[in-house]
Design brief:
The protein is 38% helix and 13% strand. It has 458 residues and is an alpha/beta fold. The protein has 3 domains: 1-39, no CATH class; 67-321, Type I PLP-dependent aspartate aminotransferase-like (Major domain) (Aspartate Aminotransferase, domain 2, 3-Layer(aba) Sandwich); 328-449, Alpha-Beta Complex (Aspartate Aminotransferase, domain 1). The strands form 3 sheets. The protein has a 7-stranded mixed beta sheet with strand order 1-7-6-5-4-2-3, sandwiched between helices. The N and C termini lie far apart (53 Å). Residues 446-458 have low confidence and may be disordered. Bound molecules: pyridoxal-5'-phosphate (PLP).
Length: 458
């Protein structure tokens, strides 16, 4: 090396400008903090910008004060209840507030989870255990449990069935019917049914299953056939929407057969990813066998979780939101999103070749739309998704509906708190402009349709 030239590594500590990032082996020697940071920053430049992610139900904006709470508590392991009893108490406050929001009749119990997926695994395990208790008490076989739900559920329900050996009984959708009701569920229920799962705010169109109808059906089965089948509500998205937008609509513990509810704090609970909740109607709805007691952290502690160690930040951030917004604030926020969704829907319907799906029904703050049946255009929904991404970087998902509505292609835009009216207007213009471009150049209409279900399951 020329004596006067500075060694490249002295400039940066690592030749990251002219060498690739370490990928397969941990480097023998580390690098400077700034360089490690730069390598990561360079990589994720190619990720999408979360604010333009119209696909996700998950929070992409929190207040600076909430972010401070998150950042200041990253070093606090949530599971150390003995060491951090106040954090544990704050978890319990959140559970009590949610149980109250969902009209639990009395004292209840629940759990903080990593998201709705963990909450659903735990809730459904409790359904399985409780079913087994009932069957054992009646001296009947316990080798053939099944769970009934619609094709409009999130992928986690099939996951539960496979992981925990329960037969899934899935009610198919229809080309013009994207939620389920009692008439769909009834033929599938028998004495081996551990429960029925209904969705409040589906991933596909944001609507709710007919929870009141299903509850009535189950009450009828209880009185007529002595079958006590519990109802679990997957309110991953809807649990923070319905109480504020549709407070008179009954879907929660006001309905007798509803025994457990899950909700994602990181969706419309407005917290960054990593928090979900499971709430039981009564303490007795949690199978006692699933609770483990240990004292190796210094004090006898009960846990009902699939994970163990995790951060405290998101629990504290959830509590922050609950007390910061209150019912009044959540109502305001949900109404803002709803009004902006309606604005987007009306613009798309007026200026584009679109029909909006179920806009007059109770729905999450989103617009589910597709090319109108009578529109004669040389492109499809997948082409539109591609074109708006190319023109402006919006991530707008296109997908096919679950069986037997798979012939239907859909587009869906979540309208969350990070979309101001100005941005919503721009988004509408951008989608319409993308259609105009496609009108001229035509669509590719060749699309990867596999794994659609996991593709939309945020
Ligand atoms: C998002 C979602 C889930 C999974 O929730 P996570 O919090 O992402 O684990 C389950 N069910 C429905 C209806 C959802 O929208």
């Amino acid at each position: 090396m020329n004596e006067r030239s500075m060694p490249r590594t002295r400039l940066t500590g690592h030749n990251w400008l002219i060498e690739g990032a370490p990928q397969d082996k941990m480097p023998e020697v580390g690098t400077e903090a700034l360089v490690a940071k730069r390598i990561i920053e360079q990589d994720i430049v190619l990720d999408g910008i979360p604010e333009r992610n119209l696909a996700t139900f998950v929070t992409t904006w929190m207040e600076p004060e909430a972010q401070e709470i998150v950042a200041e508590n990253l070093h606090r392991n949530f599971i150390d209840h003995a060491e951090y009893p106040e954090t544990a108490e704050i978890e319990q406050r959140c559970i009590r507030m949610l149980a109250d929001l969902y009209n639990a009749p009395g004292e209840t119990t629940g759990a903080r989870t990593q998201g709705s997926s963990e909450a659903i695994m735990l809730g459904a395990l409790s359904l399985k255990w409780k079913w087994r208790e009932r069957r054992n008490a009646a001296g009947q076989p316990v080798d053939n449990p099944n769970l009934v739900f619609g094709g409009d559920v999130h992928v986690v329900w099939e996951k539960f069935c496979r992981y925990f050996d329960v037969e899934p009984r899935i009610v198919p959708l229809q080309p013009d019917k994207y939620t389920i009701g009692p008439e769909d569920v009834e033929p599938h229920i028998d004495e081996n049914t551990i429960g029925v799962a209904a969705v409040l705010g589906t991933t596909f169109t944001g609507h709710a299953d007919d929870v009141v109808g299903i509850n009535d059906l189950l009450l009828g089965l209880k009185s007529d056939r002595g079958l006590d089948v519990p109802l679990h509500i997957d309110a991953a998205s809807g649990g923070f929407v319905w109480p504020f937008l549709y407070p008179d609509s009954k879907w929660d513990f006001r309905l007798e057969q509803v025994r457990s509810i899950n909700v994602s704090g990181h969706k419309f609970g407005l917290v960054y990813p990593g928090i979900g909740w499971l709430v039981f109607r009564e303490k007795s709805d949690l199978a006692e066998d699933l609770v483990f007691y240990e004292n190796y952290l210094g004090k006898t502690d009960a846990t009902f979780t699939l994970n163990f160690s995790t951060g405290s930040s998101m629990v504290l951030a959830q509590y922050y939101n609950l007390i910061r917004f209150g019912r009044d604030g959540y109502s305001f926020v949900m109404n803002v999103m709803k009004e902006n969704s309606e604005f987007l829907a009306s613009r798309l319907e007026a200026a584009g070749p679109f029909q909006i799906v179920g806009e007059d029904e109770e729905q999450l703050p989103l617009v589910a739309f597709r090319i109108a049946d009578d529109a004669d255009v040389p492109y499809d929904e997948f082409d539109i998704a591609w074109q708006v991404s190319a023109e402006r970087g919006w991530m707008l998902p296109a997908y096919t509906m679950p069986p037997k509505a798979e012939a239907v292609k859909m587009l869906r835009a979540l309208v969350k708190l990070n979309l101001s009216r100005e941005l919503v207007a721009t988004l509408a213009d951008d989608i319409i402009e993308a259609c105009e471009t496609l009108e001229k150049k035509g669509g590719a209409s060749k699309h990867e349709r596999k794994q659609v279900k996991t593709g939309v399951g945020y």
